[in-house]
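Predict the structure of Lipoprotein.
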Amino acid sequence: MRLFRILASLLALAALSACMGSTERSYEEAVVTGSATGGDPALAKGPYTVRSANVTVPESLTVSEKNEIKPRADIVWHGDPAGDRHAQVDAIMTAALKQGVSAMRGPKSVVLDVTMTRFHAVTPRTRERNPLGAHEIGFAYQLSDARTGEPVGPGGTFDGAFKSYYGAAARAAEARGVSQKVRITNYVAQTFAEQLAAR
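Done. Here is the predicted structure for Lipoprotein.
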């Protein structure tokens, strides 16, 4: 009887592990392919057509260039050469948001205004050694009528995070052209499109 229970427990754990692995693979496939809508036609039927997406990265957001596990700052970004990190985040987010909303075709034409609150990618040290690293993206947004400029509903927030690659997996992804910038762009594009379509 005891042997039977042990075998049953092992089978249950194996099944659970298989399910978890399957979820991770399907998530990665959706994010890394670059599909803004993850192949879901329902997202193209959202309530809005976004005519333009404007990103503001306030100068008040703090920046860290420290190569620590998790620096205390609003912006942590090492995926571009040293330079104006605010401008680099602006370029990444503008591309991500435009990618995300490009397939939406809804009855209401709007303008999307985004104000960044957090852009926390991983440092080289974390990317090389830490299996618990994550990319964290946060912003506030407001939709406005494309014709009148009047607000369309209340503003919203986006608060997203997903696990970063590290070690050999990070190096292999980079070799395939799947950089941190690519993963963040596709993650924001997909998840924000889903959020906006659900409004």
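The chain has one domain: 33-197.
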